[in-house]
Each structure stands twice: as C-alpha cells, then as structure tokens.
Amino acid sequence: MTVYIKYMVSLRCKMMVQQELEKLGIHYSEVELGSVEVMEDMTAVQREAFKRNLLKSGLELLDDKRSILIEKIKNVIVKMIHHDDEFPKINYSDYIAEKLGYDYTYLSNMFSEIKGINIQQFIIYHKIEKVKELLLYQELNLTEISYRLHYSSVSHLSNQFKKVTGLSPSFYKKLRQKRNSNLENI
Q1: What is the pTM (predicted TM-score) of this model?
Q2: CATH class assigned to 121-184
Q3: May I ask the CATH architecture of the domain 1-63?
Q4: Which of 29, 135, 141, 185 has the smallest set of CB atoms within 10 Å of its CB?
Q5: pLDDT tens sequence across 77-125
C-alpha cells in the first residue's frame, strides 16, 4: 500500500518519516520523496498517530486523490532538478507525463488550477534554486551550469535568473560571497 506525504522533498524528510514509521511499528519496504510503500494496512490508530507526528515536523499525510497527484508532479520535478545527476534528454512535459502515466495537458490544467501557477513556472523556480546552489557550492561557471541544466544559452539562464530573483547570477554570487566573508569576521 502506498501512502503519500506532502512537503517531503529532502533526504532529511525521508529519514524523519522512516523514524516515525519505526516508532509506530509500521513495516515499510521503500521510502521515496513524497511516498512510502507500507507492507500492510495501517490501523486507524496508527494512521492518526502517523498523521499527527508528521504534522509536528511540517509534513502532511495526503488522502485526497487530486492532492496526491499534485504532490506526485511536484516530487517528479524536485527529484529531476535537485536529486538526479542528469536532466532528462526529452521535454519536461513528456518526462512528467511518462513518469506519472497521465496526459500532460490534464496534469498541467490540474496543477494550475490547484497551485495557481503552471508546471513550467514551478520548474523555472526550482531550476533557479538549483542555479543558486551551484553558484554557491560548486566550482562551476555559468556556461557549465547553463549546459548542466539544459538552458539554451548562458544569456537565457541569466535572463531567467534576473526575472525570478531581481539579480544577475554574477551579482548574486558576489553578494553571497561578501555576506559569507562578513559572517566569518564576526
């Protein structure tokens, strides 16, 4: 039985969910971003305790089918951008539709209706977060980052970055470096 969890987007979240499952004596075979494969049905008491404990950590147990599908879309995107070593070689729309087994138009319309932004905007925001991470913690230049994240050019990456953050990538990097050096001097 698969159980779906909202806001589960990191390895730390996965570890926390595993700990909660173990505390409650719930046997599971797999914990992925946004979902857990439990080996037997949970009792009503276990489910309620699990739900309550997740809420304490900022996570939410999902029951509604539409919410579950939205969470699946978000998790495919987060995994694709933040956790996979390689971006897919196909269109994002084809990739998401293939991963979830639904028509992309259906997924896109539902996502927009519920989240208030479209899937493409969600992808852009996450790509910009990945760019920030790569600028700060990796020894990659903008050309390498642009190539790695499948931007058509450095100019396209820079324009998108500035549109989302209000800063150029190089200014952002300098600003963060200056802030970090100021913190070291304290």
Answers
A1: 0.73
A2: mainly alpha
A3: 2-Layer Sandwich (3.30)
A4: 185
A5: 998 888 776 666 678 899 999 999 999 999 999 999 988 999 999 999 9
